[in-house]
Structures are given as C-alpha cells and as structure tokens.
Amino acid sequence: MSKFLKHKLALPVILVAGILLTILIIKMQPSMQHNPKARPAVPALTISIQEHKLRPTITGFGTVAPDLTLSAKAEVKGRITYLHPELKKGAMLPKGTVVVRIDDKDYQLALRQAKADLLSSQASLKEMQLTVENTRLDLRLANEKLKVRRAELKRLEKLRKTGAVSQSKLDSERQNMLQQQQEVQQLENKQTTLPSDIQVLEAKIEISRAKVEQSERDLQRTEISLPFNARVRQVDAELDQFVAIGNLLFDVSGMDKVVINAQFPMEQVRQIARGFDKEKLTFVNPSDIKDISRVFASLGLLARVKIAGTDLKGWDAKVERFSDNLDPQSRTVGVVVSVSDSYKHVEPGVRPPLLEGNYMEVQLQGRPDHFLAMPRFALHEQQAYFIDEESRLQRVELKGLQLQGELALFKGGLQAGDQVITSDIFPAVNGMTVAPVKDEKTEQALEAWVRAAQ
C-alpha cells in the first residue's frame, strides 16, 4: 500500500474513486417529492365573488377652458367716447351689453353723403329714362315728317317737268328733306347710345348703394356689444383713447359653457370602446356625421367631472369629441367634454363655478355590461388566488380584466360564487391547503364600491 501511495498515479486514482463513490451515494438516495397534504393548512381571508351590471369607468385629467372666447378689435378708427363702467377684469356681463362706443360723427356724415349720392344717381336715372321715352316719340314724329317731305319732293319734281314750279323751289324742298333725314339719323343715333348711358347710371346707383351699406356698417361698428354672456379676461381700451383699425379693445370668455380636454391612456380607452355598438360607428360619408356628441350619447358614453384633489360636488358633462392625435409626450388620448351653465348650479362651499385653468378629474363611463368584481388589492398582476372545492389554492389568469377605482372587473377565469383570497399568502403555491376565513369587512367594502360604480 505504501508503495502504491508513493506511485505518481496514486493521487489521480484516489480522486476518481472518490468522485465515483459520491455519485453512487447520490443515486442510491430516494427522490424528494413535494407533498402538499403534509403541510398544515394556511389560514386565508376569502370573499365570494358575484356578477354585477356596471358601467366601465376610466379616469383622466385636464384643465378647464372656455368654449367661446372673443378678442374684440376696433373695426373703425376714432376716439372712444363710452366705456362700460363694469368692463373690468373678472367682471361678468350679460349678452347684448354695449361695452364700447367710438365717436360716430364722421361716420354719420359719410352715411349722409352716401345717401345723397344715391338719390342723385337715382334722379339721373329717372331723367335718362324720360329722355329715352321722349327720344322714341321724337323719332316717330321725325319719321312722319320725313315721309311728308319725300311726298312733297316727288310732287314738286313732277310739277317741275311741266314747268309749273321753279328750280329754286324744287332745290329748297330737296334741302328740307335732307335736313329731315339728318334729324331722323341723329335721333336714331341717340336712341342707340341711350341704353349704354342708362347702364352707366345703374352702375353708379349700385356703387352708391354699396357706399351707403358700407357707411351703415361702419356706423354700426362704432358701437360694440357682447354676443354672449361673458366674463372679462382683459381690457386694453381707455376712455377718450384714439384707436386705429385692428387695435385690441378687450378680451372676454363665454360663461354658458366650458370644455375640458382630458387625457386618458390608450389601453383604458380601449376598455370602454369594447362595449360600443359598431353599427352606430359606421359612416358611409363624413357628411352623415351631423353631431358627433349625439353619436357618443347613443353609444352610452357618459362623463362626470370634479375638481381634482377635492371632495367638492361634481358636474355631469357631455362628451363632445376625441382629439385627432396622441399627445406626443404622454402618448395619451384626448377626450373633450363640456359642462353647460356651471354658474347657474353654483352651491357656495359645495360646488363652485368652473373657472378657466381649474385642474379637473374626468370620469368616462361606458355602456352598462355584466362583470365579475373583486377588490383590486386582491389582484396579483393579472392573476387571482381562489380556493377550489378541496380547499386548495389555485392561481388563475383573469380574462377581460379592467381596473376601476378599488375594483378589478373581469369577464372570465372565475365564476360567480368562487371563493377569492383577499389576504397575503407567501409563498402562494398551487395545490397548497388553505383554511378559508370569511372576510366580512372586505365584502362590505366591495358592495359599497359596486354601488358607487353602478
């Protein structure tokens, strides 16, 4: 043995033998198997899930903007002679209120001049029409005279052949006939040119009428009134100030309606869109879309808004339209909703009016549908833990999952009456034995969340 150990191959042989012995020992050991029954049952809080008819709801945020704005600019030049005493930043004025007047004396004079020019042109036209009628009568008389002269000339020519009249008398009559022919020709020429003169006068009348209308419009523009119920945002005009055409006078916004462009993640919008009636969204021609807000209402799409981060009372809103592109930074979809007459429904300390710039929370609600509901906190990514008939834990993937506030809504994966685990279990191993304990507190909370979502 001592000789073998001293041999140079002794060490490699011993190492190989040790490795083979180790492998043999491992192979002879019985395999380890997991026996879930051997593990004691783990207590777990559970609730029984039920099916509910709910409106799927998504939440977005946006700021209030007026639906109508007006930046009033001077359309005529002149000195400001009147400025409404309440035309100040923040003031509220009703529709039709006259807020600015510009000195109108020059415009009244211009209107009188334009009306006088129009009357003059109309009188000239009447005179020309009389001239046309007189010329027609004169021409008829001149033609009758010409016939008489021609007949007289023929008679004298016959008498001259017999020597009954002198040559001088015949020449005189021929001269008279020529003069009458010239008169007829002049009247015919005048009758030809008179229609052109009438057209010129008619054109002058149209120009005079246009000047009268322009002067009347300029005169109207010296008085500026509000086209809608308005709240003043900015005032640039001052009393006795001279303003040129295009000078900014004031800036107001409408009070009757405000809009909010709220942003929503694309996936959330898809959740609501799944419940839309596709037939109502089919348009053969763009002209078929008369009022897109009515289309949204027919799809069951509702909206409600409130001031973000507060417990103040909210407003019902109308879905007006979707934005035409994604936000380049957040990659969200813009949905424009509107609220009408917020000033008429003010409740001091409970529901203030919606002011421009208010940061709003907007809830969009889709058409009611049937969903299974469970607490959101009991969700594990896309999975839920439920207890089967043998009191064993099973992990299941939920289908058609939608998150809505404290709720997780889904269409498949579980059935009504299944027991879902609401407490934390670690590790959660499929098939492990669980001792269920009814979670009454969570069931009550779940019922309250469902009622709020209906």
SS strand fraction:
25-35%
Instruction: Calculate Rg over CA atoms.
Output: 49 Å
Give the strand order of the largest sheet, numbering strands 1, 2, ... along the chain.
3-12-15-14-13-16
The best one-word shape is elongated
Characterize the structure shown.
This protein is an alpha+beta fold and 454 residues long. It is 36% helix and 29% strand. The chain contains 7 helices and 23 strands. The chain has helices spanning 2-6, 10-28, 105-162, 167-220, 266-273, 292-298, 440-453; strands at residues 42-48, 50-54, 57-66, 69-73, 78-83, 92-93, 98-102, 223-225, 230-235, 242-243, 248-254, 257-265, 302-307, 315-326, 332-340, 359-365, 369-375, 383-387, 393-397, 402-404, 407-410, 419-421, 434-438. It has a 6-stranded antiparallel β-barrel. A 5-stranded mixed sheet has the order 19-18-22-1-23, with helices on one face. A 4-stranded antiparallel sheet has the order 2-17-21-20. Strand 13 and strand 14 form a beta hairpin. Helix 3 (105-162) runs antiparallel to helix 4 (167-220). The chain is elongated. The mean pLDDT is 86.
Key structural traits:
454 residues, six-stranded antiparallel barrel, alpha+beta, 23 strands, 29% strand
What secondary-structure arrangement, pairings included, does this model have?
Layout: H1 2-6, H2 10-28, E1 42-48, E2 50-54, E3 57-66, E4 69-73, E5 78-83, E6 92-93, E7 98-102, H3 105-162, H4 167-220, E8 223-225, E9 230-235, E10 242-243, E11 248-254, E12 257-265, H5 266-273, H6 292-298, E13 302-307, E14 315-326, E15 332-340, E16 359-365, E17 369-375, E18 383-387, E19 393-397, E20 402-404, E21 407-410, E22 419-421, E23 434-438, H7 440-453
Parallel strand pairs: 1-23
Antiparallel strand pairs: 1-22, 2-17, 3-12, 3-16, 4-11, 5-7, 5-10, 6-9, 7-8, 9-11, 12-15, 13-14, 13-16, 14-15, 17-21, 18-19, 18-22, 20-21
